[in-house]
Design brief:
Largest sheet: 4 strands, antiparallel
Strand content: 25-35%
Order of helices and strands: HHHHEEEE
Number of strands: 4
Distance between the termini: 75 Å
Shape: globular
Helix content: 25-40%
Length: 154
Amino acid sequence: MRRSITRIAHGLAATLLLLVAACGDPPPAPEQAVREWVERGEALAEDKDRRALVDMIAEAYTDGRGNTRDDISDMFRAVFIGQKTVSLIVSIDDIEVYGDSAAQLSLTVGMAGLSNTRFGMNADAYKFEMELEQRDDEWLLYSARWAPVGGDLR
């Protein structure tokens, strides 16, 4: 009798483990997904992978400066050409998620890089406010404002 109970318990445990494994990890909560989006962007920028960075931006991107997605792509190109290396220190100041498909993100980003300039190194710190939307399970940047730390965002 005891062996039967043990076999049943082991069978139930194995079935539960299979069910949990088959379900996989649940999709991340929207805030966690936005954090992962930031981490991905940081890694791509440090790798100077402009195309993959641009893929994180919605085709309908616009900002208060009149920039489009293509303009932001050109900015990445200019920065990456002028820098031998790019190093970032990213601090997420605030994430506000609206529903499950929109978010506003505030970041402070310290940027340093070895450059082709006379001194060989550049360093800056900027504040960013970004508006993201989730489309087809992918978070995309739709608009952004930025300024050097201490400046007015625009």
